[in-house]
Specification:
Shape: elongated
CATH architecture of the largest domain: 3-Layer(aba) Sandwich
CATH superfamily of the largest domain: DD-peptidase/beta-lactamase superfamily
Distance between the termini: 52 Å
Order of helices and strands: EEHHHHHHEEEHEEEEEEEEH
Structural class: alpha+beta
CATH class of the largest domain: Alpha Beta
Number of strands: 13
Radius of gyration: 27 Å
């Protein structure tokens, strides 16, 4: 599915995925399932694996990792580790997120799995378990490799897990500076161009290689809404910064959150067969809030579907129908509707009368042959 044309937003990214986390709405999908070189954006998977090790108690923030000659020799962005260093997990998290340290990623991979190759295999396996079907990892850092690929949707899924599963660690993504042992005066600043703009941005990771171009996995929160986006293929860091800011502005300004139906408030009735009442009210079990493009708010429609008439008895709170809301330019939203009240079986006389009406309809109401 391409960018929704009626929303009048054309991204310069070669691939993009924009997601409203609050309402679970995909706002943009441009080549989002295409496997592409993720560059340093794939460091988010290494970071997730380390966060999971912390959660499971396999390491603590004070755990020290060794630095191999392989880690020290990594080029590109580094936190300037030496083989004599014993950086803590806390320091390595900061080095990967803020400095985009390739050396930190190798140290983490070797510390958790013994070798980077073994760790990359674990990354791929874990990604599959999380539903990231277009991701294959060849290393821990995003170093160029033909077998190292991710999609923008997968990067968005990954960002969602980091935000929702690890709220205690996520704030590191919004930190703007880290200088391990004062060795990185020119590489101490977070490359995320959105953090200082005052638009609610608080993560996550940039990426760049000559093959991938410039990309960013970002997130921003304004009021009660949070968006996540992943873009790639921009020609420069300036273009990346401008496109990222445009996407955040578009996502928050061109969509509004609406309460379409409230929990417990009747939206329709369903016919009941052989019950002590002929109908039962249909209500949402929870509030239904949807994201609506500003220019099509008056074009929303809804329908209630169910297989009826419903057969008594029916317990209150039982899902018996579905509300389908049609919002132009966005996928339909489907939510279950539950019975508003208990419906018991009809008494014997009522059942006999109902059966009589059914039979009468079959014979008297049938057309002549």
């Amino acid at each position: 599915m391409a960018t929704h044309p009626a929303l009048a937003f054309e991204t310069a990214s070669t691939a993009a995925w924009v997601y409203d986390l609050t309402t679970q709405t995909v706002l943009m999908d441009k080549n989002a399932d295409q496997s592409v070189p993720p560059a340093s954006m794939s460091k988010l998977m290494t970071i997730l694996m380390l966060f999971e090790a912390l959660r499971d108690g396999r390491v603590t923030m004070a755990t020290e990792f060794a630095v191999s000659s392989r880690a020290k020799a990594m080029g590109g962005s580094t936190m300037f580790l030496q083989e004599t260093d014993r950086p803590t997990v806390k320091e390595l998290i900061h080095g990967m997120i803020i400095n985009s340290g390739n050396d930190a990623c190798v140290a983490v991979a070797e510390g958790l799995a013994g070798t980077e190759e073994a760790f990359a295999a674990q990354m791929t396996e874990r990604a599959r378990a999380l539903g990231m079907t277009a991701s294959t990892f060849a290393n821990a850092s995003g170093w160029p490799d033909p077998n190292h690929r991710m999609s923008m949707r997968d990067l968005g899924i990954l960002a969602q897990h980091l935000i929702e599963d690890f709220p205690e660690y996520y704030p590191v993504f919004s930190e703007t500076e880290f200088n391990y042992k004062d060795r990185a005066p020119d590489n101490r600043f977070n490359r995320n161009p959105l953090l200082k703009l005052g638009i609610g941005a608080d993560g996550l990771k940039t990426g760049h290689t000559s093959e991938a171009g410039y990309g960013l996995v970002g997130s921003a929160k304004q009021g009660d809404r949070r968006i996540i986006f992943a873009i790639t293929g921009l020609p420069s860091d300036t273009a990346r910064a401008e496109e990222s800011e445009r996407i955040v502005g578009w996502a928050f300004r061109q969509f509004s959150e609406k309460t379409v139906a409230k929990a417990g408030i009747r939206v329709a009735e369903a016919e009941v067969h052989l019950g002590d009442t002929d109908t039962v009210g249909l209500v949402p079990a929870t509030d239904l809030r949807l994201l609506v493009p500003a220019q099509v708010q008056d074009s929303m429609t809804a329908e209630v579907v169910y297989n009826g008439p419903l057969l008594a008895p029916i317990a209150a709170g039982t899902a018996v129908a579905e509300l389908i809301v049609h919002v132009p330019d966005l996928p339909d939203r489907r939510v279950p509707l539950v019975a508003e009240a208990d419906v018991g079986k009809a008494g014997f006389v009522s059942r006999v009368m109902t059966a009589g009406r059914v039979l009468y309809g079959q014979y008297v109401g049938s057309p002549a042959s």
